[in-house]
Write a structure and sequence with these properties.
The chain is mainly α. The protein is 67% helix and 0% strand.
């Protein structure tokens, strides 16, 4: 009991010395409101998602669903306007700081909805809200512990030294962001040494820096890919697990969702374009190979095989029969066994002689013009029983 009393007294003394005496109580209350509002609203939405009966649920007056971002905007307005209205006097600034922190937690919890202008709260895009909240909490905590943006210390006397520190830290933070180190670059604004680590190390393969600088450096790109596979993916899995624990795992996007249709159409268009180009290239290569083989084999076959014309005629008739079967027509042609392929110059047999002993001359009829007529007559001529 005595030890617990001593620990409480030491905490109160530290709070009085580091927070109240340093005039940081409004910022501390803002951070407390930020964290409590985010934790409270995440607990509420997870209870609504689990369909707990005794939990109040969503606020839907008249069937209109009101997002908690609306209430957060109200808290932000009250906190911001209240500070200006009271000229930052005590104790109002403490209460308005708490209200402003509550508004920050409620609004940033739906940051992804504001960014995408769509209800993506429980989708994979909704993770941007968790990123924004965690970054806001860390930024406020660093301000509370004494860190200042870009290493600016108000007590510094040399103006050129202050400008140099700001420019160098800003440049290094921008390089870290371009290399895909988002958390390192953002937190490096508050902690200058952290941004240097992200700026010196290899860029992530999907970052703008890698697209600009690693296209002509295959070894460096291979190293970046290997590091992404071994290190960054493990870190991403750990971060995903932590975010699932804090904010809940995202849902699978339903099939009727507009974002699903949009993404599916884009993927289908890309796949179709890729397949069309691939099929066209394969067909062109195949036709070129066949043409080369035919041009190389045709002279040798004609010169070496005697009676090559008969073999070609038989092959042509076989091809014609196969096309006929595939077209659904009959293969039986009465009195047409000796007919040649369509397009040949041979004519049909001569008709029987007429009176006078001289055969009548008839114009030559191609087999392609004769066969349909014979088939038509054969189909419509009834058979006579004998």
């Amino acid at each position: 009991m005595h030890l617990a009393q001593l620990s409480i007294d030491s905490l109160l003394d530290g709070y009085q010395r580091h927070i109240v005496d340093a005039h940081k109580q409004p910022l501390f209350l803002l951070l407390v409101g930020f964290i409590l509002s985010f934790v409270g609203i995440r607990f509420s939405v997870r209870m609504i998602r689990a369909e707990v009966r005794w939990w109040p649920g969503n606020i839907t007056p008249g069937g209109l669903h009101i997002h908690h971002m609306v209430f957060g905007l109200g808290f932000l307005l009250v906190g911001g306007i209240g500070v200006f209205a009271t000229n930052g006097g005590h104790p109002w600034i403490d209460w308005f700081g708490l209200a402003f922190g509550i508004g920050c937690g409620l609004v940033l919890d739906e940051f992804a909805l504001i960014l995408h202008l769509d209800d993506v709260y429980w989708s994979a895009q909704g993770r941007k809200s968790v990123d924004a909240v965690i970054f806001g909490i860390l930024f406020t905590a660093l301000l509370l512990t004494g860190y200042v943006p870009l290493g600016v210390v108000p007590s510094q006397g040399t103006r050129w030294g202050l400008v140099a520190v700001i420019l160098v830290n800003t440049l290094v933070s921008v390089v870290a962001l371009l290399k895909g180190k988002v958390w390192t670059g953002l937190l490096g604004i508050m902690v200058p040494g952290l941004s240097w680590i992200g700026a010196v190390r290899l860029a992530r393969p999907s970052s703008p820096w890698a697209r600009w600088r690693y296209t002509t450096r295959p070894r460096r790109r291979a190293r970046a890919l290997r590091r992404e596979r071994l290190l960054h993916r493990r870190a991403d899995r750990a971060r995903t697990w932590l975010f699932d624990l804090i904010a809940g795992a995202p849902d699978k996007v339903p099939a009727h969702h507009t974002a699903t249709h949009r993404v599916a159409e884009q993927m289908a268009a890309r796949a179709t374009a890729h397949l069309d180009a691939h099929v066209a290239r394969s067909l062109a290569r195949r036709s070129a190979r066949l043409a080369d083989r035919r041009s190389a084999a045709a002279p040798a076959g004609r010169a070496s095989v005697p009676g090559g014309g008969r073999g070609a005629d038989r092959q042509g008739k076989a091809r014609h029969r196969r096309r006929t079967v595939r077209a659904g027509r009959s293969r039986a042609y009465a009195g047409n066994r000796s007919a040649v392929r369509p397009g040949s110059a041979e004519t049909a047999p001569a008709p029987a002689p007429v009176s006078g002993g001289m055969p009548a001359r008839t114009p030559a009829v191609k087999a392609s013009e004769q066969r349909p007529v014979q088939r038509h007559l054969r189909r419509r001529t009834p058979r006579v029983r004998r």
